Amino acid sequence: MAYDFKKEAKMFYMPKNKPEIVTVPPMTYLAVRGQGNPNEAGGSYQKAVSVLYAIAYTLKMSYKGKRQIAGFYEYVVPPLEGFWWQPGVDGVDYANKNDFHWISVIRVPDFIQQADFDWAAEEAQRKKQIDCSSAEFLTIEEGLCVQMMHIGVYDDEPASVAQMDAYIEAQGYENELNEVRMHHEIYLSDPRKCDPAKQKTVLRHPIRKKAAK
Question: What are the DSSP calls for 111-133, one per residue?
Fold first, then answer.
């Protein structure tokens, strides 16, 4: 049976719909950086997602071709994720999506190495006839975070974020959101195919212990 991160690493992909504190280890991703409104039709965000999936499936299906990746095992392509920030904004201003800066990512198994990524990006570009030069191989260590499952549309996320903020305040922590430690979302539902009221998104914020007064 193919390895599925959502089942094997439930702590990070299937949290409860109430806040919890976790320590997130280093994870390696396919990544594309950009800025602007993610809802813009044909915009840079949607193009980035297309590039990520093209490379992700090239890697996943590599075992059926000539590329032999050391340590390869069959796996389910993990869900799309995004790291988000807005320069000069404390937290997230959902009303100003045009100001978003983002790193759109898809996780890859640990056996994938830089050389495998380089090959897959070239192969996807050749086969799909899309420019994959914006993609990079990126490791991110989030460390101490608060997270929860948000159920509903993206524009209702502030209510879940407020729960997370109240929880960490009670536990003696505070947010550490900046351009290095970012607002993180993991998209478990395809908004094109599911009831918006049942849409599932993991929300995660970096935190730190409050300084003693």
Answer: T--HHHHHHHHHHHHHHH----T
